């Protein structure tokens, strides 16, 4: 009769699988190629790292190597201390400082280099993309660039054969470690054209 507060007698319906593609509520992200549950798809779960170009290193003789990214060009670079020249530069540093007060840190760095460990400075290197997983290829059509945001390639059973790219805390992702396939080159050209259009500050015209 009166407005009742007891309106919560409707049982919570389980979230139905959107289709019969994945029976266990698991979906496949067409951007980062991770599998995910539709009910735990928070913003920030979908992460794609930059992919760097190992063949285009800049060396300015400062004991460091600078790699541009394929996906974002010179806008995103990663710096590596070069093992060959670093021990020499450490000695030079010590000689220059002449105090030996700050050598403890340098020595451990030098030791790591001598052991062949490549020291990449990636602490401040953010991802290329961070957002929500998606299963709708049309929604991210503009993002496919043939380098790190790649289209699904499925096997005969319909499973995606792409590898989910992830950046470790020690090394960036290089394109040499990514398996590319047919169609990636076309996406690259397309993405390049798109970038040039933006640079020319022209009005973005969607290709028909
Ligand atoms: Zn990028
Ligand atoms: Zn994703
Ligand atoms: Zn995939």
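^ structure tokens above, recovered residues below v
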């Amino acid at each position: 009769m009166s407005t009742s507060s007891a309106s919560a007698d409707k049982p919570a319906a389980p979230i139905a699988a959107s289709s019969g593609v994945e029976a266990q509520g698991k979906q496949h992200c067409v951007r980062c190629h991770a599998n995910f549950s539709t009910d735990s798809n928070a913003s920030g779960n979908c992460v794609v790292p930059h992919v760097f170009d190992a063949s285009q290193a800049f060396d300015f003789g400062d004991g460091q190597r600078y790699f541009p990214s394929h996906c974002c060009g010179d806008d995103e670079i990663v710096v590596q201390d070069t093992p060959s020249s670093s021990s020499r530069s450490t000695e030079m540093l010590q000689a220059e400082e002449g105090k030996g007060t700050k050598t403890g840190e340098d020595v451990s760095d030098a030791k790591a280099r001598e052991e062949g460990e490549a020291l990449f400075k990636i602490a401040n290197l953010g991802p290329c993309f961070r957002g929500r997983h998606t299963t709708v290829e049309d929604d991210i059509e503009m993002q496919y660039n043939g380098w790190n945001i790649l289209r699904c390639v499925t096997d005969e059973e319909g499973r995606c054969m792409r590898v989910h790219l992830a950046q470790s805390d020690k090394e960036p992702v290089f394109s040499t470690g990514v398996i590319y396939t047919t169609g990636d080159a076309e996406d690259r050209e397309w993405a390049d054209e798109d970038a040039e259009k933006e640079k020319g500050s022209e009005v973005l015209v969607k290709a028909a």
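The beta strands are 26-28, 35-37, 46-48, 51-52, 58-59, 64-69, 73-81, 119-121, 129-131, 173-174.
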